[in-house]
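From the shared-data thread, chain only:
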Amino acid sequence: MTNQKSMIAQNDDTICALATPSGTGGIGVIRISGPEAFVVADRISARRGSKKCADSAGHTLHRADIIEASGEVIDDVLQAVFHAPRSYTGEDVVEISAHGGLVPLRRIIARLLESGARLARPGEFTQRAFLSGKMDLAQAEAVGDIIAAQTEQAHRQARRQSAGHLSRAVTDVRAIVLGVLAQIEASIDFPEDVGELDTDLCLQELARAHRQIETLLSTADRGILQREGAKVVLAGRPNVGKSSLLNALLQIDRAIVTPVPGTTRDVIEETLNLRGIPLRLSDTAGLRETTDEVERIGVARTRENLADADLVVLVLDAASGETPEDVELRAELAGYAPLIVWNKCDLLPPGQSLPMDEIAVSAAMRWNLPALEEALASRILGDSALTSDGAAVSHARHKYALESARAHLQDAIQTLEADLPADFVSIDVRGALESLGLVTGETATEDILAEIFSKFCIGK
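Structure, as tokens:
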């Protein structure tokens, strides 16, 4: 593909970066990739009785000293050598395992930069792997998903995508659509040899491709939730127990709890694993009019978080009952369709009842929290399909591309059924192929690739 070839032409330099998290640890790994990877590594190394990188067999490990230009030894390291194309990037690669301190790692990278390498851009190693044909675009995106996964289910989903489950499903659909396009073009270019277009067969094949896309799209809502999570905001007036509820759900004392109204002045966010979905729970400042400048800022931030929430939980105080302020909050938050939760039900006055369709809990006593979790799961997940052990859509980008392909197939089917010229059908079929190619990268533009890989960390 033209755009990929132009990008490959730019990869004639050698890059390096720290591949492990910055900080202090037992080991830090620095990755070098490119046509001069071995030369650059050898320039800063003194091998201990071993061959140079360029003369070493691939997939071998060697001990070496990393030295300054002055001859001073920076660190005693291990160097892993990988020859192109049998490496992560498809290029010559050297991975240096050094002691994991900030100073030695920084000095080694400085020596690599002095010796001809440049610092890698975010995601550039994986981008080179994609451009070298080591993986397609969906698999490359899964690399970032594996690193960012916050739950076991999200990790499993990312691993399946990395293994090519989604890519194979999309490739199967593309093969069907390509077959139809081949029949259409043959009927246009060689009518004497192949005869008229078999409309019924093309309709059957396009319908089959359409069904397979529908199957993939049925996994999208749950798949995207598993990868991205959902933002849940706990809102209510001061001292109704929002912070206590956050602590109870997390099973840790994350937020400060006191009897003094207005304790929470800022937004506190933590992640809860709810049935494989990472919920980003936000404890917010109580909503009320106040002259306290700090609390006023906290209330403003609460309203900002409400605008970004996937679900708002309005917490009410069962001990005091519904106050005029609560009634106002119900009206104010009605547009968010909040989940209503009554807290402090252990203090509910005798004989007083609560609405049957609203959740009653006691954060202090950890009472009825499973019912709250069930309600959260129901509101967040809705009717979204469970991801299977097979292909699942986990990126909004993939979802939009598949929806576009589905729309083009629907247009192609309608054009065929209307008995319009085959040229018109081929336009819609080509549009479907273009959209499907966005998932695996065949038709991705440089702008799309740059956007995707810019979200990766440096060193991956």
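Residues 230-381 form a domain with the Rossmann fold fold (CATH 3.40.50.300).
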